[in-house]
UniProtKB/TrEMBL annotation:
InterPro entries named in the record: DUF202, IM_YidH-like
Segments traversing the membrane: 23-45, 57-79, 100-120
Keywords: Cell membrane, Membrane, Transmembrane, Transmembrane helix
Organism whose genome encodes this protein: Terrilactibacillus tamarindi
Membrane-protein topology: Multi-pass membrane protein
Residues annotated as domain DUF202: 15-85
GO cellular component: plasma membrane
Lineage: superkingdom: Bacteria
The protein's name: DUF202 domain-containing protein
Predominant cellular place of this UniProt entry's protein: membrane
Cellular localisation: Cell membrane
Length: 121
């Protein structure tokens, strides 16, 4: 029979599993954000002949900013995951307020660009 050594992480299994689920949720969110950018860009180029140069610029901006925000979301998710691992083990967990505020701001900014795009459509 193999003797299992208890690690510090094994004391907080539920918290670490919740941290992994949160990380995967952020990854799914990033994929959705990137997907929306591709969707808008594809729809725009299918209707390109009837749209203005400003519409072209906004569609490009939405596509690029969505991909950029998706990549930023993945990077912040990775950073947040490893920071939470340490804070869970040290019993010094703090909520990631800056991450939430930063991502929320960028999502609102892209939503405003979407709104402007649909106004000129």
């Amino acid at each position: 029979m193999k003797d299992h050594k208890r690690t510090n992480e094994s004391n907080y299994i539920q918290q670490h599993l919740a941290n992994e689920r949160t990380f995967l949720a952020w990854i799914r969110t990033a994929i959705a954000i990137i997907g929306v950018g591709f969707l808008v860009t594809n729809l725009h180029f299918n209707m390109r002949s009837s749209l203005s140069p400003l519409g072209d610029l906004l569609a490009d901006l939405i596509g690029l900013s969505s991909v950029g925000l998706g990549i930023l979301t993945i990077m912040l998710a990775i950073f947040s995951y490893f920071k939470k691992v340490t804070t869970i083990n040290d019993q010094n967990f703090q909520t990631p307020k800056i991450t939430i505020i930063l991502l929320g701001f960028f999502v609102i900014l892209i939503a405003l660009i979407f709104g402007l795009y649909f106004l000129i459509l």
